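REVIEWER CHECKLIST
Item 1: Sequence provided? yes
Item 2: Single chain? yes
Item 3: Sequence as submitted:
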Amino acid sequence: FFFFFWWWWFFFFCPATGIFGVAFEANNFLSPSLTAFATGSTAATAFPTAMTTFLQSAGLPNKLGFCLGGPGEPGTLTLGGPDSNLYTGSFMRATLDVSMGSYGVAVTQVGMGSGQMMASPDFSGTVLDTGTSFLCVTQAALDFMTNTQCMADSDCDIELTLDGPDGGVTLQIPGALSCNQGTCANTASQWVQVCGNPVIGYVALRNYYMVLDRDTSAGTPHASFAAPTSACVTSNVLPSRYTGSVAAAEPDNSDSSSSSSSSSCVLLTLLSPSRCRCCCCCCCS
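Item 4: Structure as written out by the authors:
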């Protein structure tokens, strides 16, 4: 009994930044009560996350690129910057708030493919999370979406506008809802759910190649979104699920202030997300 109690207590109260350690140092700390139990000291501790440590030790820019793949197809994680083989066109940027240790964004507008807009959406505390399968919204937002009249499934496409430079970015989210007898409704997969904290998860992020600029030393960090290429959702991106090979990264135009010089990056394939809440996450990552 003591063993199982200790196991539960340790993993419940210890900090976690996800399997890949993609979140920030603010989430990677031991509480004073825990350190007092373990060491007799009441000083809080904080440590750099696994991903931050890896990028720094490899001399890579503090940026991550994500292709989340599709059903049965692994995605790809790019370390150190974007890969031009995985996106097309230019990036649209959203401002990130990382003060709470997660990838926070400000949702300024909620709309539907039919053109209807939600008045004064309250999406405070919204985070980007690759480890959450769903789109988590408020009850008021779900009521708005599922009461929207429609004639086709495209009328039920969700549109979220995120605050950012140059007008921000509007994320198109097709397929999360469908038209059912003239009204938008959740699909059998229940891609849209009510949660205590709004989360933009896989169902939205799978439609884009996303780059998270995690560097806070150079100013405000950003999340950049571009249209994915076919390589972004095919298992032929890499010969295996993991590779340690290093390739030259493409010039990073996800940030207009960045230089045109290339850097090194490592590509890792990711398994397609399962129906779990936190696999390789950003907010709880």
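Item 5: Key structural point noted by reviewer: Helices lie at 2-13, 32-39, 50-57, 139-146, 202-205.
Item 6: Recommendation: ____
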